[in-house]
Design a protein that fits this description.
- The chain is of the alpha+beta class and about 575 residues long.
- Helix content is about 30%, strand content about 25%.
- The protein binds adenosine-5'-diphosphate and magnesium ion (MG).
- Magnesium ion (MG) binds next to loops.
Length: about 575
């Protein structure tokens, strides 16, 4: 059952979508958006009060905050967000001296998550870090997995070429840093079955959401039921500091080396980026952000492969860079020009410690995740059979499309076979997945079958269908069944041995977590989506129509409670 209630205050209309299950209605909601719309009723509140009603006119269940309490809570949450920088910039309104922003989508009430699975996910992180340190150190294995995919994937080929050039020139740093985020969803195909934890993906590059996740609106109504907040920014700063200490300064200018953060221009999610800069300065580490397209002109590489950063309008020899903490360089558009490729090559060639270096970046490709899920692969990197079993238990079945099996071929051909799968490209940043029945038509639309090799197939996780949430979305309040994702942050610093899988671990720890929820019928999970990058033509100095920056949907962040009773 679903109801829509309108909340009058101008200028924007706030809608309340209600989608409760009655006890007889346990099969879960339809995946069909139209169904949801058909079931909505509109009820106009009076005097600015929310008046949620069921479709049949019943009053709403008492567990839900009453309309005026909800309106009050929403006001409190918005005030909290405003005063804690839980905001996104509205780029089209970026006036010379004024910065406009909107608050991020959040929950208005905690979403339950099983305590034991939360603990399990946290405990897995050091092992996950170790696995990815070893994978990222093993160029030969990465070559076996990614080599067959290079021909039809420009960005992958660019990154792989850079890796080879750095290796041939014996450049780069033997110390690497990783800030990882392993994402999980709950799996419970049928009501009553045991709930388990399944990995959605492992992020190794520019993991988002860490700063937002620690700013949970601590409004009175939800305070008592929240678990302790993570301290993500400080923990990530700790890992970067450990990497900084591992850097051997060349000391060309006799000043402290700095941390360089390559960033994307026009980033509307600065509230998830700038806190790192402040935190690093606060622990005494000079830290500079530099936009991707300016890196070539603002850096130089010495014959000894020291990277020097020359802040705009500065004079002198520049600052030696100890750490490169990438927040840009994951989008294919950033490598579309020669300048983009040269930028990454220069950074990678340098002695600076990268977070992550190009091999760490490659290790985060979906094709690597798929390869690791194959039998006997984890054994190449980890010794302990119990550890291996623990990680493997979180993996979903995945299929390559470079050499499709008979099963994969069936999935790619028939919509009803494809229904349980998601098609994923080796890309970061969200929005590249194709879901379920749309897969065959999408694959058929590609110019050739060779192009299929850019994708992998992953079995869809089937989350519990009866977890309700209360989400403040862009312009509406959604109340109804939700799907949540727990992201566990990990930090690692390691020294790769010359060849093979050996690593000397300098730092390995779980750092914190993020938690996001979305309405049941939303397939992807992009907390923030939308980039405005200078196109290749702009970078080459050609005229180009300005592209409107777009701000797409924000799903809610971090309001949740740990519960085992309800969910076991
Ligand atoms: P990216 O974040 O790089 O776009 P993800 O693998 O995280 O790629 O997929 C994006 C979103 O799609 C996830 O956050 C999740 O909501 C959904 N998703 C991805 N894989 C699965 C899966 N196997 N089962 C269910 N949902 C999935
Ligand atoms: Mg993701």
């Amino acid at each position: 059952m679903a109801v829509e209630v309108r909340y009058p205050p101008a200028p924007s209309e706030l809608k309340l979508h209600l989608g409760f299950f009655s006890t007889e209605d346990r099969d879960g909601p339809s995946n069909d958006n139209d169904d949801r719309k058909r079931n909505q009723l509109v009820h106009h509140g009076q005097n600015g009060h929310l008046q949620p009603h069921h479709r049949d006119g019943e009053t709403t269940p008492s567990a839900r905050p009453q309309a005026h309490h909800l309106a009050h809570r929403i006001r409190e949450i918005k005030d909290y967000q405003l005063t804690h920088g839980k905001l996104l910039k509205v780029l089209p309104l970026d006036f010379p001296t004024r910065c406009h922003s909107i608050n991020l989508g959040v929950s208005a009430s905690p979403t339950p998550f099983p305590q034991h699975l939360f603990t399990q996910a946290l405990h897995l992180q050091e092992l996950m870090n170790e696995l990815y340190m070893r994978v990222a150190s093993d160029s030969d294995w990465l070559g076996t997995v990614l080599g067959p995919l290079l021909e039809h994937d420009d960005m992958l080929r660019t990154l792989w070429d850079i890796n080879c050039k750095v290796r041939e020139a014996k450049g780069g740093s033997e110390v690497s840093c990783g800030i990882f985020r392993s994402d999980y969803m709950l799996q419970q195909p049928e009501a009553g079955q045991e709930v388990s934890l399944k990995q959605v993906e492992m992020n190794t590059f520019s993991c988002a959401g860490a700063c937002h996740a620690e700013k949970v609106p601590l409004v009175e109504a939800v305070l008592p039921s929240l678990p302790p907040l993570p301290i993500n920014t400080a923990s990530i700063t700790h890992t970067l500091t450990a990497a900084y200490k591992a850097y051997q300064p060349h000391n060309i200018p006799s000043r402290k080396p700095c941390i360089l953060i390559p960033i994307q221009p026009h980033n509307f999610n600065v509230a998830d980026e700038l806190p790192f800069v402040h935190a690093l300065w606060n622990v005494g580490l000079p830290t500079y952000r530099c936009e991707w397209q300016d890196l070539l002109s603002l850096t130089t590489l010495t014959p000894e492969l020291n990277l020097l950063y020359h802040p705009p309008n500065s004079t002198g020899t520049g600052r030696e860079v100890a750490i490169i903490f990438y927040r840009a360089g994951y989008d294919a558009a950033e490598y579309a020009s020669k300048a983009g490729k040269a930028t990454r090559l220069r950074l990678e060639m340098s002695r600076a410690i990268k977070c992550p270096d190009v091999r760490g970046h490659l290790a985060g490709m979906k094709a690597v995740q798929q390869a690791l899920a194959q039998p006997r692969m984890l054994e190449l990197f980890l010794q302990d059979s119990e550890d291996i079993a623990k990680l493997r238990a979180t993996f979903m079945s995945m299929q390559p499309l470079s050499t499709p099996s008979a099963t994969a071929l069936q999935i790619t051909q028939a919509p009803q076979e494809a229904e349980h799968y998601v098609l994923k490209a080796n890309r970061e940043g969200g929005g590249h997945n194709i879901y379920g029945a749309e897969i065959p038509a999408f694959l058929a639309s590609l110019p050739s079958k060779q192009e299929w090799s850019r994708y992998i197939l992953m079995r869809l996780i089937e989350p519990p269908k009866d977890i309700n949430g209360l989400l403040l979305l862009d312009e509406e309040v959604y109340e109804g069944p939700v799907v949540s994702e727990l992201g566990v942050l990990g930090g690692a610093v390691w020294r790769s041995c010359q060849e093979g899988r050996g690593v000397e671990v300098l730092e390995n720890e779980g750092l914190g977590w993020t938690f996001k929820s979305k309405p049941w019928d939303v397939k992807g999970m992009n907390v923030v989506r939308g980039l405005q990058l200078p196109s290749a033509q702009e970078q080459e100095g050609l005229e180009q129509e300005p592209q409107p920056p777009f701000m797409s949907f924000c799903r809610n962040i971090s309001l949740w409670s740990l519960e085992d009773d309800r969910m076991s």
